[in-house]
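Render this sequence as a predicted structure.
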Amino acid sequence: MIAMRCLATILLASFICGCASQIDPALVKQRQLQVQRMQTRVFDTNDRLGLVRGVIAAMQDLSFVIDNADAQQGIITANKYGDFPIEMTVTVQPISSKQILVHGIAQYKHKPIEDPFLYEQFFSSLQEYVPNIPLSGD
């Protein structure tokens, strides 16, 4: 009887491990691209300093405390304190002479946040601070 239970446990564990190893790499890649799209916006401008200032204001609007803002490097780091503390790093980088990419990565307990709500809030707030700078494609 004990041998049967051990065998059943081993078979179940093998089945579970086998299922876990069969995750479709294409689905993983698709999910990564979805997350990256929600974390990124391209603005049709060459006003990097204006976007850095807008990022800082937008983060403060969302109750983030700015830890570091390096306008030369285009990197802003901040924390949001409370029941669910969030760390966020935003980069503001030119991708051409007429476009700048803004990319934000938020983390909770050192794990990336993949919920689009935070990113939608951030980019909506940012757009209010840079209303004369259109998003690419708008």
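Summary. The longest strand covers residues 86-94. Helices lie at 2-20, 25-39, 48-61, 116-129.
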